[in-house]
Amino acid sequence: MNSPNQPLPTFDEVLLCTPQTTAEQVGLFLRRCLIPCGRGEKIYTMLYADELSYDVSCRAEELFQHLQRYNSTYRLIILCNCEREHSYIPSVFSQYKVHMIPQRPLAEIQRYLQHHYRVAQPSSSAASVFKGNMCVGIVSSKRAGVGK
Predict the structure, then answer these.
(1) What is the pLDDT, as a whole number, of residue 38?
(2) What biological-process GO terms show up in the record (predicted)?
(3) Domain ranges of the chain
(4) Residue 148 above 60 pLDDT?
(5) Angle at 39 between CA 37 and CA 43, to 5 degrees
(6) Which pLDDT belongs to residue 40?
(7) pLDDT band at 50; cut points 50, 70, 90
(8) How far is CA 140 from CA 130, 144, 146, in A?
(9) Which of the ends of the chain has fewer CB neighbours closer than 10 A, N or C?
(10) How many Å apart are CA 85 and CA 146, to the nearest integer?
């Protein structure tokens, strides 16, 4: 948010982890992050890494330990749910843990995201479904099974 005109991360810089994420997917992601090849100053982010299965987490740690020897300038952020801090990945990387509290007010964060997710030329696209010609939206409900 310090550079409002800098683009958001691209698909190759973010891995959204689920219990179904495979070791191959994590391996490809870690290779992009840790193998030096002049891609600039990208910041790679693993979201919800605490949801990876035990086997995938073990293989990810092994690959990380192997590849990090070849690159000391990588930029990797691993975000986990604080309620699952005792799962494998958060435990392995606990020496690097930083408790993160948003430093900006919610309204400012929302304005920043609206700047990046607004469709520039509104047309007959899916963006017309979301408020303010946004190309993303969140639909949620406090009740299960209400068709959201």
Answers:
(1) 64
(2) negative regulation of non-canonical Wnt signaling pathway; sprouting angiogenesis; ubiquitin-dependent protein catabolic process
(3) 1-103, 104-147
(4) no
(5) 115
(6) 64
(7) very high
(8) 14, 10, 10
(9) C
(10) 31
